[in-house]
Specification:
Blueprint (H helix, E strand, L loop, with lengths): L5 E7 L3 E6 L2 E7 L3 E6 L4 E7 L3 E7 L4
Antiparallel strand pairs: 1-2, 2-3, 3-4, 4-5, 5-6
Protein name: DUF4236 domain-containing protein
Organism: Streptomyces yaizuensis
InterPro entries: DUF4236
Length: 64
């Protein structure tokens, strides 16, 4: 049986969240329609919700 853990902590309501899981953490900045993310592994991403149920996402990895 795999073990999963995830906790979302609100730092600024409806704007900034800290997500903590078994493999690290991530920050999420933004609202429901658009947000930016950054995690403990150096990855970042952008997501925008579009009309009609579509989502545009872009992920980027940190370069050494």
């Amino acid at each position: 049986m795999p073990f999963h853990y995830h906790k979302r902590i609100t730092l600024i309501p409806k704007v900034l969240y800290l997500n903590v899981g078994r493999h690290g953490w991530s920050l999420r900045l933004g609202g429901r329609r658009a947000h930016l993310t950054r995690d403990s592994h150096g990855r970042s991403g952008v997501a925008v919700r579009l009309p009609g149920g579509f989502v545009w996402r872009r992920h980027r990895r940190r370069r050494h």
